[in-house]
Amino acid sequence: MSRKSLKWLPALVVPAVIAVGVVSVPLQAGAAVDLPDKSANEVLQLVANSTEDSFSGTVSKTANLGLPAGLSTALSGTSGSVPRGTESMKGGATAGDALASGLEFLSGTHEARVFVSGPRNLRVQVKDQLAERKAVSNGTDAWFYDSETNVATHVAIPAEATSEVSEELQDATELATPAQVADRILDKLGDSTDFAVGTDARVAGRTVYELVLTPKATGTLAESVSIAVDSETGLPLQVSVAAAGQADPAIEVGFTSIDFSEPAADLFTFTPGDGVTVEELPLPTERPLDAAHPDLGIGEPVVTGAGWDAIVEVPAASALGELSANPLFEQVTTDVDGGRAFSTALVTVYFADDGRVLAGSVPLDRLQAAAN
Amino acid sequence: MSSAETATRRPSAGLALLGSELSVLFRRRRTWAMLAAVALIPILLAVALRLSSGTVEPGEGPPFLDRVTQNGLFVGFTAMVVAIPLFLPLTIGVVAGDTIAGEASLGTLRYLLVSPAGRIRLLLVKYAGAAAFCFVATLTLIVAGAVIGASLFPIGPVTLLSGDVISVPESAGRSVLVACYVSVSLLGLCAIGLFISTLTSVPVGAMAATVVVSVISQILGVLPQLSWLHPWLFTHYWLGFAGLLSQPLDASTFADNALLQGGYILVFGALAYGRFASKDILS
Fold first, then answer.
1. Fold of the A288-371 domain
2. Interface predicted TM-score (ipTM)
3. pLDDT means per 10 residues in chain B (283 residues)?
4. Where in chain A is the domain with CATH 2.50.20.10?
5. I want to staple B203 with a disulfide (CB 3.0 to 4.6 A). Which of A40, A245, B101, B256 is the partner?
6. At what angle do helices B252-277 and A9-29 cross, to 10 degrees?
7. Rg (CA), chain A
8. In a domain, B283, yes or no
């Protein structure tokens, strides 16, 4: 009965067409891009030359840091994949929660809408499931709003601070021509880093040059940093950090869509509505740690080496005793020879038994060797 | 509903069939009972909140619950979030699962199919009826929420997820948008229900299977080990309407969701056609 089997034809054709579409549309978007060749220096000049300071777009961040299993479990509740309403089962707020929410941005995928207009106006909206966190700054006021707690935090920025910053910015931009900036970067980092231009590609629908920074030192955890630079405007559109021995980038932050038109001015002001709890926060002073916690007793950190394989050593401090008492600390660190270690794809932190803390983008044995 | 006009291939015949399908669907006591139950969700929620003395802390209970006592317009949103995982799929399962299997079990299917070209048309009409129910059900929920919210709580300008404040008429527009989003979200499930309904002549079986499919999809959607599969699940965007409650309005998930549901409609529509057109209609 071929007439009958013919009726099933659409059921075969439709999924096939959809499969072809699913495969071919991203392929077309990523079709080979061929831009005029540029040296690394020229790409750096392109970035320094960029005058684009008003745009809006969607930024996506993916992190595959290989965080310890305990930490991933602790964070999974805040990543938004768990249905709301079950979250209350996690229990009340603890110190661990605060630590976890701080670390949350280091794991998983986040998406944010970003609006920038000029050097002062900035609006970032981080999208969560049925919730949002927003930061707005317009040079005189900075607001942070969390829809989940319904709390708006306000920081008044004094006029001097703004003018200081903008003066510094002007100094930086006026003193150096793009070529000088490029030279300076190459000069400063050239000893430790190889600069190269990778394959041209497409990011957020725009053609980009790929600037690849590779460490000259061997044995670092960070393998390379790639920066995608818009071929037209010179705006960096994507940064991704590759870790040794890992196929997926350890961190990738980039635009998934971008629009270079001027965002509406009213996006950069914020008026809290009725029922929103408003908290005033004083502007952080230059040394907030010293002022707020004079008895913290953390000594000056010592940096050994320069460039990618530098190791930072913090002398023994009483404050770290409190940290190690936190149950989450036990969970995320592993017991190693002479202390405890926290390792991720990019950074290793070694807590020696004598209280010193060593950190660097190097394997654990290098930290242990440096500690002895 | 059994119309001799289907024998002729005039477009008005399809419209007449659709009209009779809709009038049968919305004259059923079962449909009214389900719509009443849908409307009861925001009403129960609002009454319980009004009668309880304790205040709701932000982040406690379902989303937006703490906002309801300040602004009654949030009742609809909270009720929507509560109804999406199980209750709305349940009502859609009942309607979509009944489409073909219900006629088959009553023995009226063959009268509907007197003309040879009638099968595609019947499938389309049945699907359109179930899709119309999706829209009516979500609108019922939002409207019931707005009415009960306005009568029990103060109403005023609404603070969106981004902290921006919009006026009451604009928030009504957003409510309708959310209802449309949720209705579109359910269209994929509707198509799955239509396909399952062509497989059997036992309507209860098709209804239960449709609901089970939606539950399984949601369970798969929370397993982090299957994260590669998540964007392909028809339930993936079900709670993704935060962009509609943000300023500026972010319609990107609306478009993604519509595309995904469109894919499901095409695939399961084609499967339903394959099964229904090649099937021997005995009842």
1. TATA-Binding Protein (3.30.310)
2. 0.81
3. 46 80 92 95 92 75 81 90 94 94 88 74 93 96 94 89 89 93 96 95 95 96 89 93 89 93 96 89 68
4. 40-83+92-280
5. B101
6. 160
7. 24
8. no
